[in-house]
Amino acid sequence: MMSVRSPLLVDSDDAFAVKCGRKAEGMLIPLTVLALSGSLRRASLNTAMLTMAAGYAPPAMSVTMFAGMGDLPLFNPDLESREPWQVARLRTSIADADALLIASPEYAHGVSGVMKNALDWMVASGVLMGKPVALWNASPRASHAIAALRETLAVMAARLVDVAGLELLIEHDSVGRPLPNPDEAAMRRALLAIKADLCQQGRSSSS
After folding, report:
1. What is the pTM of this model?
2. Residue 156 maps to which CATH number?
3. pLDDT over threshold 80, residue 180
4. Which of 63, 127, 48 is nearest to 90 (CA)?
């Protein structure tokens, strides 16, 4: 079961996205997408979905999972003036990435505490201002979590890339292991949409 949030790119934009990239001194530098999972569960389906993304990224773009979500201390405004190293690591990783890919489970009609804690730490720094963000979810029923994320990210002035939003019903086997990607084409298109958005922004800013 698959859902992409809005109509996907036309063929000409797809071709442009495949070819484009960031160049420095004549060399093509891959665009970077940082993936953040709102679950610490070992067999998390949202984490599995984000992990799958690395294998479907278009040319000249990489997807990397941030592995330190569970290391973040609970948000405490008193610590912002002496930022914990775990928080600085996340902030720097976000700042260095061209875009974010976020997936979070839904708990009690809201986003997970893990994800909300991470975002709370990022508010004061403004690191998400203008940052392209795509929202994914491994359960099409998690509409409240998506809505909560959208509201929080809008307040933080992130730039939501709705065309790259993706909902896939990721399932697991009898021992909890994620089953293979149920819609490889949809994941490729969503990742291509992220790249096309980044390339279009780059083309607009240089014109």
Report:
1. 0.87
2. 3.40.50.360
3. yes
4. 127
